[in-house]
Amino acid sequence: MKTADSKNKISKQSDSQIDKKQILSAIKVVKSLYAAQKTGTSDLFELSKNPFVYMNFIVNKLPDVNYYKDTKLQLANSIHGKAFETRALFITTNEFKEANSAVLKEFAGDWKFIRYEKIKKNFKEYKDKRGLLNNYDLFFCDKALVGTLKKSLGTKFFERKKYPVPVDVSPLKTDAPVTKQQLGEFLGQLTDNCTYLHLGQGTEFSVKIGRSEKMADIDVLKNALSAFKEIVRVFKGLGLSLKNIRRVVIRAEQSESLPVYSYLTDEEKQVLKKVVNRKESK
User: Is the separation of the CB atoms in 228 and 56 below 8 Å?
Assistant: First the structure.
C-alpha cells in the first residue's frame, strides 16, 4: 500500500518535471486543429462524435506486464457521461442479469447490459463485433468472465483498446435486490472522474484526458496533470521510473502529436549542448 508520504513524493516529482504552460498551449493547439478540421470538411461522419484529447507516454523499457490489463486512473474532471452522450456496454453473467433485470432496465440508453451467452451466440462475425465497437464508448464485464471473453471477442477489441474492463460485482450480490441508487453509485465509480490506461506489450501508452469540444482548456489541463501523476504512480509499481518515460505528447483524434515532456540522459544532454554550441558558433 502506498503511504501518504510516498504519494506526496510522486506528486512533487511529477509537478517538477512538467511545464503546465506548455501542456496548456499544446491542448489549445490540438483543439484548434480539430476545430479547423471540422470546419474544413463537408462530411461530419468523417469525424468522431465528441472526440477525445489524448496524452501519450513513450517509454524506453517495457513494463513488467505479461498480459493485457486495464488500470483505472483518477482525473480532476469527468470525460464521460450524459454531457458527452457516453454509451457503455456491460457484459454480465446470466445469473446477474436475471436477478437484476428490472433495475438494469432503469439505466437503458446510457448503459446496455448483455448476457455473456448472448455475446457468444449473436456476435460471432467480425461485422457484428464491429457494430458493438462503433456503437459503444466504454466496455465493462464481470471479472468472472475475463478468461472466456478473450476467445469470443477476438483481437479487434484489443486493437481498438476497447477490451472490456473487468469489474468486481460482488458488492452488488447481496440477499436483498439491488436498488437503482446502489447500481447508479456503482456504475458512477466506473465512469466519473476517471480514465483507463490499457497496458500491453508496447512501449507507447495512450490515455484519454479530455474532449476537443464541450470541455474548457483549463479542465483538460487539470486532467493532464492528474493523468501524469497517476501514470508515474502506476509505472513505478511496474518497475519503471521517471527516467524510463522518454517522451510525453498531447494529441487529438487525427491530429499531430505535440511534445510536452522529454527526458534526456546526461550523455544526451552533452551531445545536445555540443550541437547547440556548434550552431551558435557558425
Answer: no
